[in-house]
UniProtKB/TrEMBL annotation, chain B:
This is ABC transporter ATP-binding protein. GO terms for molecular function: ATP binding; ATP hydrolysis activity. Pfam families: ABC_tran (PF00005), BCA_ABC_TP_C (PF12399). Coiled coil: none annotated. The keyword NAD does not apply.
Amino acid sequence: MNFRHAAWGIGLAALIALPFVYRDPYHLHILVLILIWSFAYTAWSIMGRFGLVSLGHGGFMGVGAYVTALLWNHLDVSPWIGIPVSMVAAGILALVVAYPCFRFRITGHYFVLVTLALSGIVLQVITATRDYTGGSLGYTPNRARSGSGLMALQFDDKTTWYLIALAVWVLGLLMWRWVDRSMSRYAMEAISEDEDAAAAAGVNVTAEKLKITLISALMTALAGALYCQYQMFISPDTVSGIAVSLQMVFAAIVGGLYVSLGPTVGAIITILLAEVLRIGFGTKAVGWDNLVYGLLLVIFIIFLPKGILGSVLDRLKTQPKPSGTK
Amino acid sequence: MLTVEGLVKRFGGFTAVNNVSFRVEQGEILGLIGPNGSGKSTIFNMLSGTLTPTAGSILFDGAEIAGKAPHRIINSGIGRTFQIPRPFHRLTIFENVALAGYYGQGRHSRSKADEAAERALRMVGLPTDRHASVDGLGAAGLKKLELAKALATGPKLLLADESLGGLDEHEMDQAADMLRKIRDELGITIIWVEHIMGVLMRVVDRVMVLDHGEKISEGLPSVVASDPRVIEVYLGTDADSSQAAAAEARRRAGV
Protein backbone atom coordinates (compact mmCIF):
# COMPACT_ATOMS: atom_id res chain seq x y z
CA MET A 1 0.00 0.00 0.00
CA ASN A 2 2.78 2.44 0.92
CA PHE A 3 4.67 1.37 -2.14
CA ARG A 4 1.63 2.28 -4.17
CA HIS A 5 1.34 5.73 -2.66
CA ALA A 6 5.05 6.31 -3.18
CA ALA A 7 4.79 5.24 -6.81
CA TRP A 8 1.93 7.67 -7.38
CA GLY A 9 3.81 10.47 -5.63
CA ILE A 10 6.99 9.96 -7.61
CA GLY A 11 5.08 9.60 -10.87
CA LEU A 12 3.14 12.79 -10.27
CA ALA A 13 6.25 14.73 -9.23
CA ALA A 14 7.99 13.58 -12.41
CA LEU A 15 5.01 14.66 -14.52
CA ILE A 16 4.96 18.10 -12.86
CA ALA A 17 8.71 18.55 -13.33
CA LEU A 18 8.68 17.38 -16.94
CA PRO A 19 7.93 20.68 -18.78
CA PHE A 20 10.68 22.46 -16.84
CA VAL A 21 13.38 20.16 -18.11
CA TYR A 22 11.96 19.10 -21.44
CA ARG A 23 10.56 21.85 -23.64
CA ASP A 24 10.00 20.39 -27.07
CA PRO A 25 6.74 22.16 -28.01
CA TYR A 26 5.44 19.42 -30.30
CA HIS A 27 5.86 16.72 -27.68
CA LEU A 28 4.35 18.94 -25.00
CA HIS A 29 1.44 19.57 -27.33
CA ILE A 30 0.86 15.84 -27.73
CA LEU A 31 1.05 15.41 -23.96
CA VAL A 32 -1.52 18.16 -23.36
CA LEU A 33 -3.86 16.49 -25.85
CA ILE A 34 -3.35 13.14 -24.18
CA LEU A 35 -4.09 14.61 -20.75
CA ILE A 36 -7.25 16.43 -21.86
CA TRP A 37 -8.59 13.43 -23.73
CA SER A 38 -7.63 11.12 -20.87
CA PHE A 39 -9.82 13.25 -18.65
CA ALA A 40 -12.68 13.02 -21.16
CA TYR A 41 -12.31 9.24 -21.43
CA THR A 42 -12.13 8.90 -17.67
CA ALA A 43 -15.36 10.91 -17.49
CA TRP A 44 -16.98 8.49 -19.93
CA SER A 45 -15.77 5.41 -18.09
CA ILE A 46 -17.14 6.65 -14.75
CA MET A 47 -20.58 5.65 -16.05
CA GLY A 48 -19.48 3.30 -18.82
CA ARG A 49 -17.94 0.84 -16.39
CA PHE A 50 -21.38 0.19 -14.94
CA GLY A 51 -22.84 -0.80 -18.27
CA LEU A 52 -24.27 2.64 -18.97
CA VAL A 53 -22.80 2.83 -22.46
CA SER A 54 -23.36 6.33 -23.74
CA LEU A 55 -22.76 7.43 -27.29
CA GLY A 56 -23.96 10.89 -26.30
CA HIS A 57 -20.78 12.14 -24.68
CA GLY A 58 -19.71 13.86 -27.88
CA GLY A 59 -22.80 15.96 -27.28
CA PHE A 60 -21.75 16.91 -23.74
CA MET A 61 -18.26 17.72 -24.93
CA GLY A 62 -19.66 19.89 -27.74
CA VAL A 63 -21.90 21.77 -25.31
CA GLY A 64 -18.91 22.38 -23.04
CA ALA A 65 -16.78 23.73 -25.87
CA TYR A 66 -19.36 25.73 -27.81
CA VAL A 67 -21.22 27.29 -24.88
CA THR A 68 -17.94 28.51 -23.40
CA ALA A 69 -16.73 29.93 -26.72
CA LEU A 70 -20.07 31.52 -27.67
CA LEU A 71 -20.43 33.21 -24.28
CA TRP A 72 -16.92 34.64 -24.65
CA ASN A 73 -17.31 35.86 -28.21
CA HIS A 74 -20.84 37.21 -28.05
CA LEU A 75 -21.33 38.28 -24.46
CA ASP A 76 -17.76 38.83 -23.28
CA VAL A 77 -18.25 36.30 -20.52
CA SER A 78 -14.93 35.06 -19.21
CA PRO A 79 -14.38 31.30 -19.53
CA TRP A 80 -13.98 31.28 -15.75
CA ILE A 81 -17.74 31.82 -15.67
CA GLY A 82 -18.45 30.41 -19.11
CA ILE A 83 -17.04 26.97 -18.28
CA PRO A 84 -19.24 26.44 -15.20
CA VAL A 85 -22.23 27.69 -17.22
CA SER A 86 -21.43 25.27 -20.03
CA MET A 87 -21.10 22.44 -17.51
CA VAL A 88 -24.48 23.27 -16.02
CA ALA A 89 -25.94 23.32 -19.55
CA ALA A 90 -24.48 19.88 -20.27
CA GLY A 91 -25.74 18.67 -16.89
CA ILE A 92 -29.28 19.83 -17.66
CA LEU A 93 -29.08 18.19 -21.08
CA ALA A 94 -27.93 14.97 -19.44
CA LEU A 95 -30.80 15.01 -16.96
CA VAL A 96 -33.38 15.79 -19.65
CA VAL A 97 -32.21 12.86 -21.76
CA ALA A 98 -31.39 10.41 -18.97
CA TYR A 99 -34.34 10.90 -16.63
CA PRO A 100 -36.99 9.50 -18.99
CA CYS A 101 -34.60 6.70 -19.96
CA PHE A 102 -34.05 5.64 -16.36
CA ARG A 103 -37.60 6.26 -15.20
CA PHE A 104 -39.04 4.10 -17.96
CA ARG A 105 -36.25 1.57 -17.81
CA ILE A 106 -34.69 2.15 -21.19
CA THR A 107 -31.55 0.10 -20.70
CA GLY A 108 -28.94 -1.76 -22.71
CA HIS A 109 -29.07 -1.29 -26.45
CA TYR A 110 -32.01 1.08 -26.28
CA PHE A 111 -30.14 3.41 -23.95
CA VAL A 112 -27.21 3.39 -26.38
CA LEU A 113 -29.56 4.35 -29.21
CA VAL A 114 -31.12 7.23 -27.28
CA THR A 115 -27.70 8.64 -26.41
CA LEU A 116 -26.59 8.17 -30.02
CA ALA A 117 -29.48 10.41 -31.01
CA LEU A 118 -28.27 12.98 -28.47
CA SER A 119 -24.86 13.15 -30.19
CA GLY A 120 -26.56 13.56 -33.54
CA ILE A 121 -28.89 16.29 -32.29
CA VAL A 122 -26.11 18.39 -30.75
CA LEU A 123 -24.14 18.07 -33.99
CA GLN A 124 -27.17 19.14 -36.03
CA VAL A 125 -27.83 22.12 -33.78
CA ILE A 126 -24.23 23.30 -34.13
CA THR A 127 -24.37 22.93 -37.91
CA ALA A 128 -27.81 24.47 -38.26
CA THR A 129 -26.96 27.59 -36.25
CA ARG A 130 -23.95 28.30 -38.45
CA ASP A 131 -24.50 32.05 -38.25
CA TYR A 132 -23.40 31.85 -34.63
CA THR A 133 -21.31 28.71 -34.43
CA GLY A 134 -19.60 28.74 -37.80
CA GLY A 135 -21.27 25.44 -38.64
CA SER A 136 -19.06 22.71 -39.98
CA LEU A 137 -16.30 25.21 -40.76
CA GLY A 138 -15.54 25.45 -37.08
CA TYR A 139 -15.31 28.26 -34.59
CA THR A 140 -12.53 30.27 -33.00
CA PRO A 141 -12.75 32.07 -29.67
CA ASN A 142 -11.71 35.72 -30.02
CA ARG A 143 -8.16 36.43 -29.00
CA ALA A 144 -7.91 38.17 -25.69
CA ARG A 145 -6.69 41.74 -25.75
CA SER A 146 -3.11 41.83 -24.61
CA GLY A 147 -2.48 41.28 -20.95
CA SER A 148 -5.80 39.62 -20.17
CA GLY A 149 -4.70 36.07 -20.89
CA LEU A 150 -5.62 34.83 -17.45
CA MET A 151 -9.12 36.32 -17.57
CA ALA A 152 -9.66 34.82 -21.01
CA LEU A 153 -8.02 31.55 -20.04
CA GLN A 154 -5.80 31.83 -23.08
CA PHE A 155 -2.11 31.05 -22.81
CA ASP A 156 0.47 30.81 -25.54
CA ASP A 157 2.81 29.02 -23.24
CA LYS A 158 2.66 25.24 -23.60
CA THR A 159 4.01 24.72 -20.10
CA THR A 160 1.04 26.53 -18.55
CA TRP A 161 -1.38 24.42 -20.54
CA TYR A 162 0.47 21.29 -19.69
CA LEU A 163 0.15 22.05 -15.97
CA ILE A 164 -3.55 22.93 -16.29
CA ALA A 165 -4.22 19.72 -18.23
CA LEU A 166 -2.24 17.73 -15.70
CA ALA A 167 -4.25 19.18 -12.80
CA VAL A 168 -7.54 18.38 -14.52
CA TRP A 169 -6.37 14.89 -15.36
CA VAL A 170 -5.49 14.27 -11.72
CA LEU A 171 -8.92 15.63 -10.76
CA GLY A 172 -10.45 13.07 -13.12
CA LEU A 173 -8.52 10.23 -11.52
CA LEU A 174 -9.55 11.43 -8.06
CA MET A 175 -13.20 11.49 -9.14
CA TRP A 176 -12.84 7.98 -10.51
CA ARG A 177 -11.30 6.80 -7.26
CA TRP A 178 -13.93 8.56 -5.18
CA VAL A 179 -16.72 6.80 -7.07
CA ASP A 180 -14.80 3.52 -6.91
CA ARG A 181 -14.61 3.68 -3.13
CA SER A 182 -18.07 5.03 -2.45
CA MET A 183 -21.23 3.07 -1.73
CA SER A 184 -22.42 4.36 -5.11
CA ARG A 185 -20.13 1.80 -6.72
CA TYR A 186 -21.89 -1.00 -4.86
CA ALA A 187 -25.23 0.42 -5.89
CA MET A 188 -24.23 0.86 -9.53
CA GLU A 189 -22.70 -2.62 -9.77
CA ALA A 190 -25.92 -4.00 -8.32
CA ILE A 191 -28.06 -1.94 -10.69
CA SER A 192 -26.03 -3.02 -13.69
CA GLU A 193 -26.73 -6.64 -12.79
CA ASP A 194 -30.33 -6.55 -11.62
CA GLU A 195 -32.38 -3.39 -11.14
CA ASP A 196 -35.23 -5.06 -9.25
CA ALA A 197 -32.91 -6.76 -6.81
CA ALA A 198 -31.05 -3.47 -6.28
CA ALA A 199 -34.35 -1.73 -5.53
CA ALA A 200 -35.19 -4.53 -3.08
CA ALA A 201 -31.96 -3.69 -1.26
CA GLY A 202 -33.33 -0.16 -0.86
CA VAL A 203 -31.46 1.49 -3.72
CA ASN A 204 -33.23 4.34 -5.49
CA VAL A 205 -32.27 3.04 -8.92
CA THR A 206 -33.29 6.09 -10.95
CA ALA A 207 -31.55 8.54 -8.61
CA GLU A 208 -28.30 6.56 -8.48
CA LYS A 209 -28.12 6.29 -12.27
CA LEU A 210 -28.89 9.98 -12.66
CA LYS A 211 -26.18 10.89 -10.18
CA ILE A 212 -23.47 8.98 -12.00
CA THR A 213 -24.66 10.25 -15.39
CA LEU A 214 -24.60 13.83 -14.13
CA ILE A 215 -21.04 13.51 -12.77
CA SER A 216 -19.92 12.03 -16.06
CA ALA A 217 -21.61 14.71 -18.18
CA LEU A 218 -20.23 17.59 -16.11
CA MET A 219 -16.70 16.24 -16.41
CA THR A 220 -17.07 15.69 -20.13
CA ALA A 221 -18.28 19.26 -20.66
CA LEU A 222 -15.24 20.52 -18.74
CA ALA A 223 -13.02 18.48 -21.05
CA GLY A 224 -14.70 20.04 -24.09
CA ALA A 225 -14.29 23.57 -22.75
CA LEU A 226 -10.62 23.02 -21.95
CA TYR A 227 -9.98 21.54 -25.36
CA CYS A 228 -11.54 24.64 -26.90
CA GLN A 229 -9.45 27.00 -24.79
CA TYR A 230 -6.29 25.10 -25.57
CA GLN A 231 -6.73 24.56 -29.29
CA MET A 232 -8.46 27.93 -29.85
CA PHE A 233 -10.38 26.24 -32.61
CA ILE A 234 -13.32 23.88 -32.40
CA SER A 235 -15.36 22.21 -35.08
CA PRO A 236 -18.27 19.80 -34.84
CA ASP A 237 -15.96 16.99 -35.95
CA THR A 238 -13.35 17.49 -33.26
CA VAL A 239 -15.43 18.10 -30.12
CA SER A 240 -18.88 16.75 -30.83
CA GLY A 241 -20.79 14.28 -32.86
CA ILE A 242 -20.85 10.56 -33.11
CA ALA A 243 -17.21 10.14 -34.14
CA VAL A 244 -16.03 11.75 -30.90
CA SER A 245 -18.46 9.63 -28.89
CA LEU A 246 -17.23 6.46 -30.56
CA GLN A 247 -13.65 7.47 -29.95
CA MET A 248 -14.42 7.74 -26.22
CA VAL A 249 -15.94 4.28 -26.15
CA PHE A 250 -13.01 2.89 -28.08
CA ALA A 251 -10.33 4.48 -25.93
CA ALA A 252 -11.98 3.51 -22.64
CA ILE A 253 -12.48 -0.10 -23.69
CA VAL A 254 -9.03 -0.50 -25.22
CA GLY A 255 -7.28 1.03 -22.24
CA GLY A 256 -9.39 -0.74 -19.65
CA LEU A 257 -12.78 0.24 -18.29
CA TYR A 258 -12.40 -1.10 -14.79
CA VAL A 259 -9.06 0.41 -13.78
CA SER A 260 -8.49 4.10 -13.06
CA LEU A 261 -5.62 4.55 -15.51
CA GLY A 262 -7.28 2.51 -18.25
CA PRO A 263 -8.82 5.48 -20.08
CA THR A 264 -5.42 7.22 -19.91
CA VAL A 265 -3.77 4.27 -21.61
CA GLY A 266 -6.58 4.44 -24.16
CA ALA A 267 -5.88 8.13 -24.77
CA ILE A 268 -2.18 7.50 -25.30
CA ILE A 269 -3.00 4.86 -27.89
CA THR A 270 -5.69 6.80 -29.76
CA ILE A 271 -3.74 10.04 -29.94
CA LEU A 272 -0.47 8.40 -30.96
CA LEU A 273 -2.37 6.40 -33.56
CA ALA A 274 -3.99 9.54 -34.96
CA GLU A 275 -0.64 11.34 -35.03
CA VAL A 276 1.18 8.46 -36.72
CA LEU A 277 -1.49 8.26 -39.38
CA ARG A 278 -1.47 12.03 -39.86
CA ILE A 279 2.29 12.29 -40.18
CA GLY A 280 2.81 9.07 -42.09
CA PHE A 281 0.03 9.37 -44.60
CA GLY A 282 -1.08 13.01 -44.41
CA THR A 283 -4.43 13.84 -45.97
CA LYS A 284 -4.58 10.48 -47.71
CA ALA A 285 -5.30 8.90 -44.34
CA VAL A 286 -8.21 11.11 -43.31
CA GLY A 287 -10.74 8.88 -41.59
CA TRP A 288 -8.39 5.92 -41.42
CA ASP A 289 -8.12 6.24 -37.67
CA ASN A 290 -11.85 5.61 -37.39
CA LEU A 291 -11.48 2.49 -39.47
CA VAL A 292 -8.68 1.25 -37.22
CA TYR A 293 -10.70 2.16 -34.10
CA GLY A 294 -13.64 0.14 -35.32
CA LEU A 295 -11.52 -2.87 -36.12
CA LEU A 296 -9.61 -2.75 -32.83
CA LEU A 297 -12.83 -2.27 -30.88
CA VAL A 298 -14.26 -5.49 -32.25
CA ILE A 299 -11.02 -7.35 -31.53
CA PHE A 300 -10.79 -5.98 -28.00
CA ILE A 301 -14.38 -6.69 -27.04
CA ILE A 302 -13.90 -10.30 -28.12
CA PHE A 303 -10.37 -11.02 -26.88
CA LEU A 304 -9.48 -8.44 -24.21
CA PRO A 305 -12.72 -7.17 -22.66
CA LYS A 306 -10.81 -5.76 -19.69
CA GLY A 307 -8.63 -3.65 -21.96
CA ILE A 308 -4.88 -3.44 -22.14
CA LEU A 309 -4.18 -2.08 -18.66
CA GLY A 310 -6.87 -4.20 -17.03
CA SER A 311 -5.46 -7.36 -18.55
CA VAL A 312 -1.88 -6.47 -17.72
CA LEU A 313 -2.78 -5.78 -14.08
CA ASP A 314 -4.65 -9.08 -13.92
CA ARG A 315 -1.53 -10.88 -15.11
CA LEU A 316 0.65 -9.07 -12.60
CA LYS A 317 -1.48 -10.21 -9.71
CA THR A 318 0.45 -13.39 -9.07
CA GLN A 319 -1.41 -14.12 -5.88
CA PRO A 320 -5.13 -13.49 -5.62
CA LYS A 321 -5.29 -10.13 -3.94
CA PRO A 322 -8.53 -8.85 -2.41
CA SER A 323 -10.10 -6.21 -4.62
CA GLY A 324 -11.66 -3.87 -2.07
CA THR A 325 -8.52 -2.53 -0.42
CA LYS A 326 -9.11 -0.63 2.73
CA MET B 1 -49.16 -4.06 11.37
CA LEU B 2 -50.17 -4.82 7.79
CA THR B 3 -53.73 -4.45 6.52
CA VAL B 4 -54.50 -5.38 2.94
CA GLU B 5 -57.94 -4.48 1.58
CA GLY B 6 -59.46 -5.55 -1.72
CA LEU B 7 -56.15 -6.03 -3.49
CA VAL B 8 -56.52 -6.56 -7.26
CA LYS B 9 -53.92 -6.98 -9.98
CA ARG B 10 -54.82 -7.42 -13.63
CA PHE B 11 -52.37 -7.97 -16.46
CA GLY B 12 -54.44 -7.02 -19.50
CA GLY B 13 -57.47 -9.30 -19.37
CA PHE B 14 -55.90 -11.72 -16.92
CA THR B 15 -56.67 -11.25 -13.25
CA ALA B 16 -53.70 -12.49 -11.26
CA VAL B 17 -54.99 -11.37 -7.87
CA ASN B 18 -58.69 -10.86 -7.30
CA ASN B 19 -59.99 -8.91 -4.32
CA VAL B 20 -57.72 -10.33 -1.63
CA SER B 21 -57.89 -8.91 1.90
CA PHE B 22 -55.91 -9.98 4.93
CA ARG B 23 -54.20 -8.72 8.05
CA VAL B 24 -50.86 -9.53 9.57
CA GLU B 25 -50.38 -8.98 13.28
CA GLN B 26 -47.18 -7.84 14.91
CA GLY B 27 -44.84 -10.74 15.62
CA GLU B 28 -46.63 -13.50 13.78
CA ILE B 29 -45.51 -15.72 10.94
CA LEU B 30 -48.15 -15.90 8.25
CA GLY B 31 -47.80 -18.64 5.68
CA LEU B 32 -48.98 -17.91 2.17
CA ILE B 33 -49.47 -21.01 0.09
CA GLY B 34 -51.06 -21.98 -3.16
CA PRO B 35 -50.20 -23.79 -6.35
CA ASN B 36 -48.02 -22.23 -9.04
CA GLY B 37 -49.72 -19.26 -10.63
CA SER B 38 -52.10 -18.73 -7.72
CA GLY B 39 -50.94 -15.13 -7.22
CA LYS B 40 -48.56 -15.48 -4.26
CA SER B 41 -45.61 -13.81 -5.89
CA THR B 42 -47.84 -11.16 -7.45
CA ILE B 43 -49.07 -10.22 -3.97
CA PHE B 44 -45.46 -10.09 -2.77
CA ASN B 45 -44.46 -7.90 -5.66
CA MET B 46 -47.28 -5.49 -4.82
CA LEU B 47 -46.39 -5.45 -1.13
CA SER B 48 -42.77 -4.66 -1.97
CA GLY B 49 -43.57 -2.10 -4.65
CA THR B 50 -42.25 -4.00 -7.64
CA LEU B 51 -45.80 -4.03 -9.05
CA THR B 52 -48.48 -1.36 -8.70
CA PRO B 53 -51.89 -2.76 -7.67
CA THR B 54 -54.78 -2.26 -10.07
CA ALA B 55 -57.01 -1.60 -7.07
CA GLY B 56 -57.02 -1.96 -3.32
CA SER B 57 -55.08 -0.60 -0.41
CA ILE B 58 -52.06 -1.75 1.56
CA LEU B 59 -51.65 -0.14 4.98
CA PHE B 60 -48.31 -0.71 6.67
CA ASP B 61 -48.03 0.74 10.19
CA GLY B 62 -50.99 2.91 9.32
CA ALA B 63 -49.49 4.39 6.14
CA GLU B 64 -50.67 3.62 2.61
CA ILE B 65 -47.85 2.02 0.64
CA ALA B 66 -49.70 0.69 -2.43
CA GLY B 67 -47.95 1.88 -5.58
CA LYS B 68 -44.99 3.45 -3.80
CA ALA B 69 -41.51 2.99 -5.25
CA PRO B 70 -39.75 -0.19 -4.04
CA HIS B 71 -36.86 1.62 -2.37
CA ARG B 72 -39.30 3.74 -0.34
CA ILE B 73 -41.17 0.66 0.83
CA ILE B 74 -37.91 -1.07 1.74
CA ASN B 75 -36.86 2.01 3.68
CA SER B 76 -40.19 2.16 5.52
CA GLY B 77 -39.39 -1.24 7.06
CA ILE B 78 -40.39 -4.03 4.71
CA GLY B 79 -37.68 -6.42 3.58
CA ARG B 80 -38.07 -9.02 0.89
CA THR B 81 -36.32 -12.00 -0.61
CA PHE B 82 -36.79 -13.27 -4.13
CA GLN B 83 -37.99 -16.74 -4.95
CA ILE B 84 -34.95 -17.35 -7.12
CA PRO B 85 -31.95 -15.81 -5.33
CA ARG B 86 -30.71 -12.70 -7.08
CA PRO B 87 -27.22 -12.02 -5.71
CA PHE B 88 -24.92 -9.40 -7.22
CA HIS B 89 -22.03 -11.37 -8.64
CA ARG B 90 -19.78 -8.36 -9.10
CA LEU B 91 -19.81 -7.72 -5.36
CA THR B 92 -18.47 -9.93 -2.61
CA ILE B 93 -20.86 -11.65 -0.20
CA PHE B 94 -20.15 -8.99 2.38
CA GLU B 95 -20.62 -6.13 -0.08
CA ASN B 96 -23.95 -7.62 -1.19
CA VAL B 97 -25.24 -7.41 2.36
CA ALA B 98 -23.53 -4.11 3.22
CA LEU B 99 -25.24 -2.55 0.20
CA ALA B 100 -28.60 -3.54 1.64
CA GLY B 101 -27.50 -2.32 5.07
CA TYR B 102 -26.59 1.08 3.66
CA TYR B 103 -29.37 1.80 1.20
CA GLY B 104 -32.06 -0.13 3.04
CA GLN B 105 -31.67 1.93 6.20
CA GLY B 106 -31.69 5.45 4.86
CA ARG B 107 -28.01 5.70 3.90
CA HIS B 108 -26.75 6.63 7.35
CA SER B 109 -23.15 5.67 7.52
CA ARG B 110 -20.87 3.10 6.12
CA SER B 111 -19.82 1.74 9.48
CA LYS B 112 -23.47 1.23 10.46
CA ALA B 113 -24.02 -0.57 7.17
CA ASP B 114 -21.05 -2.81 7.85
CA GLU B 115 -22.37 -3.59 11.33
CA ALA B 116 -25.81 -4.42 9.95
CA ALA B 117 -24.16 -6.66 7.35
CA GLU B 118 -22.14 -8.51 9.96
CA ARG B 119 -25.18 -9.06 12.17
CA ALA B 120 -27.25 -10.31 9.24
CA LEU B 121 -24.53 -12.64 7.98
CA ARG B 122 -24.02 -14.07 11.44
CA MET B 123 -27.76 -14.52 11.88
CA VAL B 124 -28.12 -16.64 8.74
CA GLY B 125 -24.82 -18.43 9.32
CA LEU B 126 -22.69 -17.11 6.46
CA PRO B 127 -19.02 -16.15 6.90
CA THR B 128 -18.42 -12.47 7.64
CA ASP B 129 -15.15 -12.61 5.73
CA ARG B 130 -14.96 -9.46 3.61
CA HIS B 131 -13.52 -11.00 0.51
CA ALA B 132 -15.52 -14.19 -0.02
CA SER B 133 -17.02 -14.37 -3.48
CA VAL B 134 -20.67 -15.05 -4.21
CA ASP B 135 -19.67 -17.62 -6.81
CA GLY B 136 -18.55 -20.00 -4.08
CA LEU B 137 -22.08 -20.38 -2.70
CA GLY B 138 -24.38 -23.33 -3.39
CA ALA B 139 -28.18 -23.29 -3.55
CA ALA B 140 -28.59 -23.23 0.23
CA GLY B 141 -25.88 -20.57 0.62
CA LEU B 142 -27.52 -18.33 -1.97
CA LYS B 143 -30.82 -18.57 -0.09
CA LYS B 144 -29.04 -17.57 3.09
CA LEU B 145 -27.44 -14.62 1.30
CA GLU B 146 -30.84 -13.57 -0.01
CA LEU B 147 -32.16 -13.65 3.54
CA ALA B 148 -29.14 -11.77 4.90
CA LYS B 149 -29.68 -9.00 2.34
CA ALA B 150 -33.30 -8.65 3.39
CA LEU B 151 -32.39 -8.64 7.10
CA ALA B 152 -29.69 -6.03 6.60
CA THR B 153 -32.30 -3.54 5.39
CA GLY B 154 -33.62 -3.58 8.97
CA PRO B 155 -37.18 -4.76 8.30
CA LYS B 156 -40.09 -4.81 10.71
CA LEU B 157 -41.91 -7.04 8.24
CA LEU B 158 -40.06 -9.66 6.22
CA LEU B 159 -41.53 -10.97 2.99
CA ALA B 160 -39.82 -14.31 2.56
CA ASP B 161 -40.37 -15.73 -0.89
CA GLU B 162 -38.87 -19.08 -0.06
CA SER B 163 -39.13 -21.64 -2.69
CA LEU B 164 -37.44 -24.47 -0.89
CA GLY B 165 -37.48 -26.65 -3.96
CA GLY B 166 -33.90 -27.56 -4.78
CA LEU B 167 -33.00 -28.06 -1.14
CA ASP B 168 -32.88 -31.44 0.58
CA GLU B 169 -35.10 -32.18 3.54
CA HIS B 170 -32.45 -31.28 6.08
CA GLU B 171 -31.77 -27.93 4.42
CA MET B 172 -35.51 -27.25 4.23
CA ASP B 173 -35.89 -27.81 7.95
CA GLN B 174 -32.92 -25.56 8.59
CA ALA B 175 -34.45 -22.81 6.47
CA ALA B 176 -37.74 -23.13 8.32
CA ASP B 177 -36.02 -23.00 11.69
CA MET B 178 -34.12 -19.95 10.51
CA LEU B 179 -37.33 -18.02 9.85
CA ARG B 180 -38.67 -18.92 13.27
CA LYS B 181 -35.39 -17.83 14.84
CA ILE B 182 -35.56 -14.51 13.02
CA ARG B 183 -39.03 -13.92 14.40
CA ASP B 184 -38.15 -15.05 17.92
CA GLU B 185 -34.80 -13.29 18.28
CA LEU B 186 -35.27 -10.17 16.19
CA GLY B 187 -39.02 -9.75 16.64
CA ILE B 188 -39.54 -9.46 12.92
CA THR B 189 -43.00 -10.21 11.57
CA ILE B 190 -42.88 -12.59 8.63
CA ILE B 191 -45.00 -13.48 5.64
CA TRP B 192 -43.69 -16.69 4.19
CA VAL B 193 -44.56 -17.84 0.70
CA GLU B 194 -43.99 -21.44 -0.16
CA HIS B 195 -45.59 -24.10 -2.23
CA ILE B 196 -44.26 -27.08 -0.35
CA MET B 197 -46.90 -27.30 2.35
CA GLY B 198 -45.42 -29.61 4.93
CA VAL B 199 -42.36 -27.73 6.07
CA LEU B 200 -44.24 -24.44 6.18
CA MET B 201 -47.07 -25.79 8.32
CA ARG B 202 -44.65 -26.67 11.07
CA VAL B 203 -43.45 -23.11 11.59
CA VAL B 204 -46.25 -20.67 10.78
CA ASP B 205 -48.82 -19.31 13.22
CA ARG B 206 -51.46 -18.84 10.59
CA VAL B 207 -51.79 -19.79 6.98
CA MET B 208 -53.61 -18.30 4.01
CA VAL B 209 -54.32 -20.31 0.89
CA LEU B 210 -54.64 -18.80 -2.57
CA ASP B 211 -56.00 -20.33 -5.72
CA HIS B 212 -56.38 -18.57 -9.07
CA GLY B 213 -55.78 -15.24 -7.39
CA GLU B 214 -58.43 -15.65 -4.73
CA LYS B 215 -58.20 -16.39 -1.05
CA ILE B 216 -59.89 -19.73 -0.43
CA SER B 217 -58.94 -20.43 3.15
CA GLU B 218 -57.26 -18.85 6.14
CA GLY B 219 -56.62 -19.93 9.68
CA LEU B 220 -54.55 -22.17 11.91
CA PRO B 221 -52.35 -24.64 10.03
CA SER B 222 -54.16 -27.64 11.50
CA VAL B 223 -57.56 -26.31 10.41
CA VAL B 224 -56.45 -25.26 6.95
CA ALA B 225 -54.65 -28.55 6.33
CA SER B 226 -57.88 -30.44 6.73
CA ASP B 227 -60.08 -27.95 4.86
CA PRO B 228 -61.56 -29.98 1.98
CA ARG B 229 -61.42 -27.01 -0.39
CA VAL B 230 -57.73 -26.65 0.26
CA ILE B 231 -57.12 -30.33 -0.23
CA GLU B 232 -59.06 -30.24 -3.46
CA VAL B 233 -57.60 -27.15 -5.15
CA TYR B 234 -54.18 -27.14 -3.65
CA LEU B 235 -53.30 -30.77 -3.59
CA GLY B 236 -55.34 -31.77 -6.63
CA THR B 237 -58.34 -34.02 -6.97
CA ASP B 238 -56.42 -37.23 -7.42
CA ALA B 239 -57.84 -38.80 -4.29
CA ASP B 240 -55.03 -41.12 -3.24
CA SER B 241 -52.12 -38.74 -3.59
CA SER B 242 -54.00 -35.80 -2.14
CA GLN B 243 -55.09 -37.80 0.88
CA ALA B 244 -51.52 -38.90 1.42
CA ALA B 245 -50.20 -35.36 1.02
CA ALA B 246 -52.80 -33.97 3.38
CA ALA B 247 -51.93 -36.61 5.94
CA GLU B 248 -48.28 -35.71 5.57
CA ALA B 249 -49.08 -32.03 5.97
CA ARG B 250 -51.08 -32.75 9.13
CA ARG B 251 -48.33 -34.91 10.49
CA ARG B 252 -45.73 -32.20 9.97
CA ALA B 253 -48.03 -29.58 11.43
CA GLY B 254 -48.11 -31.71 14.51
CA VAL B 255 -51.83 -32.43 14.45
